[in-house]
Amino acid sequence: MIINHPLLGPRDATEFVYLGDASMIERPNGFGEDVADAMYEYVYLRDNPAGEHRELWYHEQGDRSWLVVTRNTLTHEITEVALARDVARSKGRSK
Amino acid sequence: MRYNALKILKEGLTGNKGWTPVWREPDPKPEYDIVIVGGGGHGLATAYYLSNKFGITNIAVVEKGWIGSGNVGRNTTLIRANYLLEGNQPFYELSLKLWEGLEQDFNYNAMVSQRGILNLYHSDSQRDAFARRGNAMHLTGSGGELLDEAQIREKCPYLDFDNARFPIKGALWQSRGGTVRHDAVAWGFARGADQKGVDILQNCEVMGFQIENGVCRGVETSRGAIRAKKVAVCVAGSSGRVMSLAGMRLPIESHVLQAFVSEGLKPILPSVITFGAGHFYVSQSDKGGLVFGGDIDGYNTYAQRGNLPVVEDVCEGGMAILPMIGRARLLRMWGGVMDMSMDGSPFIDRTHIDGLYFNGGWCYGGFKATPASGFCYAHLLAKDTPHPVATQLRLDRFQRGAPIDEKGAGPQPNLH
User: Fold this and answer.
1) Which of A2, B38, B47, B221 is the most buried if burial means most Cβ atoms within 10 Å?
2) Are B265 and B284 in contact, with CB atoms under 8 Å apart?
3) Model pTM?
4) What ranges do the domains of chain A cover?
5) Are A66 and A3 a contacting pair, CB within 8 Å?
6) Is B208 on the interface with A (CB under 8 A)?
7) Are the C-beta atoms of B245 and B220 separated by less than 8 Å?
8) ipTM of this model?
9) Best residue of B238, B252, B296, B300 to probe chain A, by most A CBs closer than 10 Å
10) Which CATH number fits domain A2-23+50-94: 3.40.640.10, 3.30.2270.10, 3.30.70.3270, 3.40.50.300?
11) DSSP characters over B361-413
12) pLDDT category, B2, cuts 50, 70, 90?
């Protein structure tokens, strides 16, 4: 698979390390009321869809950026690649 | 019809005209006691043990494609019981015991071959870890022997003992491990269940569950609605897809595992051999092909095909211990979808929805577990209590802080 890095252009997927579902960007509040349940769901439960999947890849053999890759799990086709930083900021993180 | 030598002789002399189909092709009934979703090895084994050992025969097995078309038809056929943790090892020991008596039990030739499994180690620390694992195996009476280099040289003189990077120092040997003819496992269980009246419904896809007031009352299928007192899901790689129809999220990701078969060669490998410093395992089929595999590709996928970097990695592992296979040509390769769990261990459990049961998370080790998985699932369905060797294989174990993590890799499915 080739991942079209937003800054570096097309790179081979072997340069990256795969983490998993991009929902992991949204870490629950560690001081919330329901923190045990929220953390359990965050760490262990997955949607695991057949079809479009947003996922985190880390460019370990490259610029060490985290990417949010939108990829089809039935065809391996990649339709969108964004810097995870931009995705997190658009959700109001680290402003 | 029971198979025996006399019958084969008689049929051989009369033109083989007396053989009948191994299972019926019935139409779905409107209601069953138990509907098993998934006609793979585990689903068929569950139906077999329910009908033959637990006395429940009003069962349907619904399968989207044809039975045995999933992972039981596309694995590397290894059986073994060489786990470390007490949540796993007694379960796999039960499985190995069931394998040992399976063919007599279901009167079908599954070609169970206990040719042994040789787990090579390459360093002092790995020898210590294997010794510990061997001791854990002895606790369940599974056998296991720590061999030194000289003993392996006797068995397999052609291994690359003096590899500069990963010299072979010894191995953990389990003589009861081996291989089984995988398709025959599905067919044998199907036949045994069918003879007790279990309906095997092929080309029957589950489209939804009938959940009323938190109780599962049946399934919607492509061949109509089927009511059931209990619905038992065991769909391996499709676990996420099927359980989402019941609104459940699972501690499972689907990944692809590739496997390979070389051209037919003269008998050379006496047993299963695994590489200890990377991920590579190989056995030789009765037709002579080397059957081998390695790591999963490592990203979520439902495509039954992988990518080339993992092919290279697997072949490098092979070349590190068996340089001679570099001359063998690859006959075919394929991929299967694995239900990789968060700790690398499976689930056989009830769900929070009454009447809905779940069996999955087998990662890439589901084949060896087939009989025990079926037996323990049947036990759970018949008695509503887990079988003693499956008490830890629960869906809520992460919430309780009790994962069964053989590798200690943490909640990262692609590392198990």
Assistant:
1) B47
2) yes
3) 0.95
4) 2-23+50-94
5) no
6) no
7) no
8) 0.95
9) B300
10) 3.30.2270.10
11) --TT-TTTTHHHHHHHHHHHHHHSS--GGGTT--TTTTTTT----SS---S-G
12) confident
pLDDT for B8 beyond 70: yes
**Spatial distance between the Cα atoms of B39 and B30, rounded to a whole number of angstroms:** 19
Two tokens, residue A91: 């959700």
| Amino acid in the structure at residue A82 | A
By percentage, how much of chain B surpasses pLDDT 70?
A: 100
Nearest alpha carbon to residue B310 among B296, B331, B323, B300: B296
Task: Looking at the complex, report in whole angstroms how far the Cα of residue A18 sits from the nearest Cα belonging to chain B.
Answer: 6
Q: Which residues on adjacent β-strands are paired with residue B367?
A: none
- Of A2, A23, A48, A55, which to mutate for an interface test with B (greatest number of B Cβ within 10 Å)? A48
DSSP letters spanning B337-358: EEEEESSS--EEEE-SSBTEEE
Please determine, for residue B145, whether its predicted confidence score (pLDDT) is greater than 80: yes
Q: What is the residue type of B89?
A: Q
- For the beta carbon of residue B225, count every other beta carbon within 10 angstroms: 15
